[in-house]
Amino acid sequence: MPAKIPATVVTGFLGAGKTTLIRHMLQNANGKRIALIINEFGDLGVDGDILRGCGDETCREEDIMELSNGCICCTVADDFIPTMEKLLDREDRPDHIVIETSGLALPQPLVRAFNWPGISTRVTVDGVVTVVDGPAHHAGTFAHDVAAVDAQRAQDENLDHETPLSELFEDQLACADMIVVNKSDLMDPTALTATTQTLTEATRPGVRVVQASMGALPTEVLLGLETAAEADMAARHEVHHHHHHDDDEDDDHHDHEHEHGHDEFESFVVSRGEIADPKAYAEQVADVIRTHGILRLKGFAAVAGKPMRLTLQAVGPRIDTYFDQPFGTAPRETRLVVIGQTGLDRAAIEQALVA
To answer: Which of 48, 117, 290, 320 is the most buried (most CB within 10 A)?
Structure first.
């Protein structure tokens, strides 16, 4: 049976920056074929037009599907499931599926839909990413333009839930595997630190809170979380289990212009000689990740007495290891790529990984 296709659910309020984040991801896909399901409703398919303009190879017309019949969690059976089945039935199946929800959508019902018989054996939720408008959150609101949220909600005739913004926001945080504090460039360091800390304290253990400006998040940080969220619903409990909420969709990019590369992130390579005990070293690596807030770590290790190299893949403190191939004539060394927010204590991390 073919491996399940990973799917990433991107949620967040109107204006938080969902579309900008996805556009940046597509422009830095590094050859990965990504299909998009965009849940927008109301007047125009603005998000689809924005994303179609990001390059012929990564934004092909047939790889972008729009659900315009209303809030995605209210139209799962009629809209979302048939769209997924159509996508999965294609001969040229994508490498990854990204679903941009309406900000009005409760994420839990959508994630549960991945357990439906028609798709459960063919696709899995790689992770749920909640995009937060950093300046708005620090100011005590959940959207840059609350009036626009209300206007969009009024347009959706199929919406069968009304939840206060604060309660919907809690649902978005409860379901998240990663929280992106967007528009970090518009916040002073003190406010950004306070917002990040507040969001970290509001989520379950293991959820990563990262900062970004203009949605510029490295693809290797955003994708490959491998959480299988649909099988972990107990940990993603809804604040409200009935359809009712009050927030909105989409993600406008601001009209400010400035550099917005990956300045918020850094990566470096740590090299060392052979290790003696794979299990003990994996525990050592996990401890280093927890201590220093590393987002991703990947690479391979040489194990004393073993001809095969040991591959290590870590997302947060969760580490997967397996022997993949013989070293052959390649040097028997351990090489690990460390990825995290700018400001990592490189010297301390290197010392801890080499110890």
So the answer is: 48
